[in-house]
Amino acid sequence: MLKQGLELKQTQKLSPLQIQTIKLIELPTQELEQRIRKELEENPVLDEDIKSEREDGEDEPPREVSLSDYKEDDSIPSYKLRVNNYGKDERPQYNTFSVKESFTQSLLEQLGFRNLDEHQYQVAAFIIGSLDDDGYLRRDIESLVDDIAFRAGIETDEKEVLDLLSVIQEFEPSGVGARDLRECLLLQIRHLKQTPDVVNATVILKNYFNDFTARHFQRIISKMGITEQQMKDAMARIVKLNPAPGGQIDDTYSDQAQQIVPDFILNLEDGKLKLTMPRFSIPELRVNRKYADILLEAANSSEREKKEAATFVKKKLDSAKWFVEAIKQRHNTLQSTMQAIIDYQHDYFMDGDESHLKPMVLKDIAERTGFDISTISRVVNSKYIETHFGIYSLKYFFSEGLENQDGEEVSTRELKKALQECVDAEDKRKPLTDDQLVEQMVSRGYKVARRTIAKYRDQLNIPKARLRREL
């Protein structure tokens, strides 16, 4: 049976200004600059305020604007004919451009120097295209033969594919085309001068690879009849080999090194912390008053063309006002949040000592600032601060806490640092087990369970005790 009735619901609808502000808060400095430049290009009501750049201090009148400037035509906007890679404050360290040789292209160029017929070249090129980014061929030969037939329309067999794979395995970088780690290392070591340590390393990789990866060194020494020093020399050769040869050449034509522009700068001046937010090449904005005049002029007009112009201008004017106000709110929100973090972690920011870093979660800063937790999360995401002891992601300062034996709360970062120190100080011939690490941590005054040690060890990329064993 259907029933009809009225139900009252209270819903919250975000204003355009709130939506704009939320989007801008998430952006780090570099992306904010790009976003502002884009807005300046698309909204003629917005101007870049260059008053601060003039020495005479006189206010420049707003540029003259004609509505005819914005009628549709086929001309190309002037900004599309300019190359503008720099902001007002040119900082070369933040404006770099690099192109690296493609991994696949490098191999194909080497293939071109081999004496192959067209059929062999096409099969070999298909094999190269099947390599992973790290340079490995992780496809079984039978399925590769089928793929070459179905996708490239080339008939071949397993023997020909293996023969051409052997050709590719001669290419640079050494080790490319391997089907597993063992083969990759053997491909590299065969080109080295056959000194005693290289010969022993080759035997280890060929005959005792599983024992080597399990770090059963004494077993290998016993089976090969070599001394401990000879084992160390062979290991030194092996660890210098490259397990991912494809990573030497970038296949994205872009520099993968992350360029960081700090959103905040914290200086220690006369024993006091001073926070600033550098603008770098972010332009100051203002709303063009000429458009406001056009809007007022057309407000009482009955002419259809002027009313349409007024509607267009009002839309752009509202958008410009929201954008300028959102930029201001972003600045205030970021500054308040960062200041709250600095106040909360004051002792740490004075000297950068991790032991002074207190447990802190998003809720702690939300309560201090009055902002929502989601807002704090957006501020923290992808933002960096430059301090007198290094550049850090804001996420670095947040961590959960545990109690020590005195009942005081300590940060998980402090616990991880203590755990790392225990591992660094251990006898590598007899590495500490997780149970022994618990005892070490207790002796330092930290109450931790074995599962906590295992979790932190994984997060610190510290292998199990057996895998940390050395000669």
Unreliable spans? 52-101, 249-258
Strand content: 5-15%
Q: What is the residue-mean pLDDT, rounded to a whole number? A: 78
Number of helices: 19
Number of extended strands: 8
**Strand arrangement, major sheet:** 3-2-5-6
The tally of structural domains comes to: 3
How far apart are the first and last residues' alpha carbons, in Å?
A: 80 Å
Amount of helix: 40-55%
Biggest sheet layout: 4 strands, mixed
Give the overall form: flat
Please give the radius of gyration in angstroms. Answer: 32 Å
Order of helices and strands: HHEHHHHHHHHHEEEHHHHHEEEEHHH
What structural category characterises the helix and strand content?
A: alpha+beta
If you had to describe this structure to a student in words, what would you say it looks like?
It is a single chain. This protein has helices spanning 16-25, 29-42, 103-111, 118-129, 141-152, 158-168, 181-189, 196-207, 209-213, 217-224, 228-239, 289-299, 304-344, 346-351, 362-369, 373-380, 412-425, 434-443, 450-459; strands at 46-48, 264-269, 272-276, 285-287, 384-387, 390-393, 401-403, 409-411. It folds into 3 domains: 103-248, no CATH class; 264-397, no CATH class; 401-468, Homeodomain-like (Arc Repressor Mutant, subunit A, Orthogonal Bundle). It has 19 helices and 8 strands. Strands 3-2-5-6 form a 4-stranded mixed beta sheet. It has a two-stranded antiparallel ribbon with strand order 1-4. Mean pLDDT is 78; it is low at 52-101 and 249-258. It is flat, with a radius of gyration of 32 Å. Helix 7 (181-189) runs antiparallel to helix 8, helix 8 crosses helix 11 and helix 13 (304-344) crosses helix 15 (362-369). The termini are far apart. With 471 residues, the protein is an alpha+beta fold. A hairpin with a 5-residue loop joins strand 7 and strand 8.
